[in-house]
Here is the input.
Amino acid sequence: MAKKKLDYTKVAQNIIANIGGKENVNSVRHCITRVRFKLKDESKADDNIVKNLEGVISVVHGGGEYMVVLGDAVIDVYDAVCEQLGNMAGTDSGSETKEKVNPVMRLLNIVVGAVGPCLNFICAGGIIKGLLTILEMTGLVQAGSGADALINAAGDAIFFFLPIFLGMNLAKTLMLTNTMMYSFSGLGVFAILGLINPENPNVLTPILCAVVPFVFSFVVAFVLYKDEAAPVPASSSSSVSENAPVLTGPLEIAAPILGKVLPITSVPDETFSTGVLGNGLAIEPSEGKVYSPFDGVCENLADTLHAVGLMSDTGVSLLIHVGLETVGLEGKPFKAHIKTGDRVKKGQLLLEFNMDEIRAAGCPTITSVLVTNEDEVGDAKLVKDQIVIGG
Here is the structure.
């Protein structure tokens, strides 16, 4: 049975209203399970109300942060919170302040962003030219042949497409403003000097001739160029796909990390130990490696690499959270071998982590492994050091 669709904007509004309002928030970030607020005065937050809000699983205090546990909805609610907080919102990678950007660099970034689409054409032309060289070296295409000329022309056409496009804009501007070039004064901005009539100097029109094509090209690139959205795997929905296999018997999920397996209740964090996110097992690692316990898809790899959400081909959603408060380490002790959206095979290495670095930072290494969609696949229990579903 599919979960009720949350109104993330409403959830965010209710949370902000009951933690003292927007003016009580210093910064906000998120990890894989919770939105983390730094409040000016935590006494203004009403835990009882927040815990019982629609979409909220629990509330946790720790490390100077007011944490609202939201499970699978955390990213959507975080985005809605940031939209309402505006510039007060922090980053979602664990850092609490945004780097100040030099105004010159900000302008340069805007220009580079506008010119960015041109790089696609330049790269395409370079690839075609490189391919032609390989074809000639291997003898598949003879130098000077018709095929050689055709491929070479294709590369040249791509290289010169954008300059011609921009040049046409400049030419049209010159014609529309009746501007003439009186002398050749150089390239770039120095060309503006050659457009000034020495007998009747008019600086404004030549400047417009240079600025208008630039602005026009900037606007066209900004409006028309869109990054392609990454494809969402069919199995990445929080609900089991209609085509997903239905569990007809007990399903066993082995511990994904070598070490001592413990009941989930032994984790010293109530978000995991109370089962509000789901039941499963805990591991005190003896090796800093995380392996996939089944075939499936990586649904969500935390930016800070401390946690990963998997969806099995049988429809089981599994959260592996390495250590406690490791989000604050900003990924330094971790190395990922997969990314969000990747297919994974049983036994495949997903993550590596340095246990000594984690402990040196004051963070426990105890790892939680939880089935987060028990309402869809059945109750999860710890049996002989593994999770059993439907047994």
